[in-house]
Amino acid sequence: MTAHLLNCFVEKSIRTRYLFREASVCLPPQPLLMANLVASAYCVVLAILLVRTRSHSGPEGRKYYKRIGTNVTLPCETSDSHTPVQWRFNGHALIHNEGHFLQGTNLTLINLDSSHSGTYSCHEKHSGSLKNQITIQAGNSPGQPNVVCRSNAYPDTFYCTWQLASPTYIPTEFDISVRHGDKEIETIKGANHKNRCSIRFPEMFSTSKYTVTVTARNALGSNSATISFNEISIVKPDPPEIIEVNTIPKSPSRLEVKWRNPQSWPEPDTMPLKYFLRYKPVILNDWQHVEVTDVPFHTITDAYEGKEHIIQVAAKDSEIGTWSEWSKAVHATPWTALASDYKPEENINNVSDILTSTTPSVSANRQNSSPKVELSMILFLGMFMVLFI
User: Fold this and answer.
1) Any residues with CB less than 8 A from the CB of 114 and at least 6 apart, and which?
2) Angle subtended by helix axes 30-57 and 2-22, to nearest 10
3) Which of 4, 133, 240, 344 is most solvent-facing, going by the fewest CB within 10 Å?
4) What percent helix, strand, coil does the chain show, rounded to 5?
C-alpha cells in the first residue's frame, strides 16, 4: 500500500513538472493543470498519514491460551534489552505485585490463573510507542465428559447430554458420535444447548447396543468418554402434570386427584404409562404411596381430616424403563364441615334486649334527668331564703 502511494506521488509529480516545463510553449487548459495538482497533493497526504499510522499502531496483537498454574514470559521485542519500558494490562500501567515480575524488558506472569486473562502491551517508557501486544487467556484442557442418554419420547427419539466436572475458562467444542451396532447414526445438536443432541431410533425393540462417544476439545487439549446401553434401559418419561384436586362433599378423608400424561410422550395409547401417586399431610414426614394403572386419576380415601396435604405423581412405561421424576407438588385440604350459623330465636331476642338496655334512648335520658333538676331547684331556693333572713 505504501509503495503504491509513493509511486502515485512520484508519477503525479513528474507529470506536473512536465506540464510546467511545457507551459512556456503552450499553456495547457486550467482545469487539467488543477486536476494534476490536486491528485499529487492527495497522494502526498495519504502517504504521510499511512506512515504515521504504521509508526504509532505498533505490531498487531496476538492471542495465546495458557494453562492455569504455569508461568508465562511475555517478550517486549525491543532492539535493546536495556531500554526502559512500561507494561500495561488492559490499557492500565501494571503495578508491581506477586503475580508478575520484570526481567529486563520481558514480563513474567507467575502461577497463572483466570485473573491474568487480558491484553498486555509493552511501550517505550519515554516515547510511549507500542513495541508488542499480547492477549492471554488462562484456562484448562477439558476433563472427561460426563455423558447421560435418555428417551422421554419412546419409541421415536432419545437424547444425550454431557457436561464437564470443572470449567475450562476458554472456548471448548464438543463432538459426538453415536453408533447402533456397527452403523453410525445421525445426530441433531440442539440450537439453544451446545451440550445436548437428539437421535432418532433406527428401529424398535432392537437388541443391538448403542454406543455414544463425546469428545471435548480446546486449544489446550482434548478428552473423551464413551457409554453403551440397550434402548429399553434409557426409557424414562417426563413427569405427568396434576391438573385438578377436588374435595368430596361430606367426605373429610377423601381427595380426588386428576393428572395428564407428559406432552413429550408420543403414543400414550400404543405405549401406555402407569403411575405412582404419593401424598402426605404437610405436618408429617412419611408418604403414602399408590400405584395406578390405565387411568390418569385416583381418589385418596385415607386423607387426614382437616389437614393440608402435598400430592405428587410419577410415570413409567407399563413394561420397560424407569420411573420419571416426581411432578410439581400440589397442595389440597379435604372437605371440612363448617360451624353452623343457626341461633335459637330466644337467644336473638335476648341479644336484642341486651342491646336495648345498654343503649338508652333520648326520652329515657330526659326522664332520668327530671328529678335531678327538681332537687337542684329546691336546694337553690332554700339557700336563697337562708341568706335573705
Assistant:
1) 68, 138, 139, 169
2) 150
3) 344
4) 25, 35, 40
Q: How far apart are CA 120 and CA 135, in angstroms?
A: 6
Q: Give the Cα separation of 65 and 150 in Å (integer).
A: 35
Residues 221-236: pLDDT tens digits? 999 999 999 999 999 9
User: In this predicted model, what pLDDT tens digit does every residue of 342-367 receive, in sequence order?
Assistant: 344 444 344 333 333 333 333 334 34
Phi-psi category of residue 155: left, alpha or beta, with phi > 0 → left and psi -120 to 50 → alpha: alpha
Answer yes or no: are the C-beta atoms of 111 and 100 closer than 8 Å.
no
Over residues 169-210, the pLDDT tens digits come to: 999 999 999 999 999 999 998 777 889 999 999 988 899 999
Q: Show the 3-state SS of 261-303.
A: CCCCCCCCCCCCEEEEEEEEECCCCCCEEEEEECCCEEEECCC
Note every long-range contact of 41-44, with CB atoms under 8 Å and residues 24 or more positions apart, other chains counting. 43/5, 43/8, 43/9, 43/12, 44/9
Three-state SS for 52-121 is: HHHHHHCCCCEEEEEECCCCEEECCCCCCCCCCEEEEECCEECCCCCCEEEECCEEEECCCCHHHCEEEE
Q: Is the pLDDT of residue 145 over 70?
A: yes
Q: How many residues does the chain have?
A: 389
Please list, in sequence order, all residues whose beta carbon lies within 8 angstroms of the beta carbon of residue 241, skipping any fewer than 6 positions away: 259, 260, 262, 327, 328
pLDDT of residue 143 exceeding 80: yes
CA distance linking residue 46 with residue 40, whole number of Å: 10
The CB density around residue 358, as the number of other CB atoms within 10 Å, is 7
Nearest-angstrom CA–CA distance, 109 and 74: 8
* Signed CA dihedral, 27, 28, 32, 35: sign only: negative
Q: ∠ CA 336-337-342 to the nearest 5 degrees? A: 155
Pairwise CA distance, residues 279 & 290, whole Å: 9
Distance CA(149)–CA(110), nearest Å, equals 42
Compute the distance between CA of residue 250 and CA of residue 254 in angstroms, rounded to an integer.
9
